[in-house]
Each structure stands twice: as structure tokens, then as C-alpha cells.
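User: Cadherin Y-type LIR-motif domain-containing protein. Structure?
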Amino acid sequence: MDERKKGIIVVLFAALKRQKKKEPLIISKEDVRDNVVSYNDEGGGEEDTQAFDIGALRHPEVMEDSKLRRDILPSESLYPPPPLRRTTVPSRENADVRDFINQRVQDNDSNPTAPPYDSLATYAYEGNGSVAESLSSLGSVSSEGEHDYNYLSEWGPRFRKLADMYGGEDSDRDS
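Assistant: Predicted structure:
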């Protein structure tokens, strides 16, 4: 039995020696696991405050131009800046809100750079010079024997059933 145990141990040892270690996918001096954050935890909150730099998110231009829109703006060369008007803020003595709102609407209507950026949408009319012409004739066409569908039988066996459906009725009437 001792010889048998020794043989098993030698075979196991040889099998373990043959197995190779798998190389890691990332070979680096710095282990990337220190930056991995589990985001599936509910209620993580603001615990991860060390992994980003808020200074990279700040732009000095944004701080200065905080009132200007950063998205789509019309070209300033096309539109001169609108004259600034002094708007009156309704107070307790002057409770006429209608004048205040009308003044704001007039200011925004006269400012071409104010959103929304609308464009004129033009639509073509049906008929009268349209490429499609009038579609009203489609409803007035009757399906009583005005069309000759005999050409469908010339299209081959794939269209035989269709030819029988449309062209077959005329041959039954003639006989």
C-alpha cells in the first residue's frame, strides 16, 4: 500500500506541475482595482468624493458668461444686440401685472436672439402645380371592367393566381 500511495502522490505532483498559471489580462505595475467603485449599492450618496477633480469641471468662461446661452445661438453678425429696456417690476402700489407681462412679451418678441429659435415652415398644396397633382380622382374610379389585366398572365407562374383573380373574370363573361 505504501508503494501505491507514493505512486499516487507522484502522479498528482506531476499533474500539478504540468498545469500552467493563467496570465492576468492586465499586466501592470499599478493595480487598477483601487479605482473600481461598485455602483450597484443603493444609497451610495456622496461617499466617492476622492475619485474626481471638481476643478476640471469648472470653466472660467462659464463663470463670467453665466447669463448667456451655451447651446444654439443665431449668428451675432446678422442681428445687432437688442436695446436694453428698463422693465418695471410690479410692486404693491403698481399691481398691474398685465403691463408687466406685455412689456416682457414685447421685449422677447423684438429680440431675434431670444429662444425659441423658430423657422418658417412652408407646406405645398395638393393639386394646383403640385408634382403629385390632385388625389381626389382616386376615390372616383370605379372598378367595373375598366381595366385590362390580361397582361398578368404573361408574367409567368408566380403571377398566375393574381392573373386568375383579375383576368379570369373577363374570360368567364365572354363565354
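The helical segments are 2-18, 60-64, 97-110, 137-140, 160-174. The mean pLDDT is 68.
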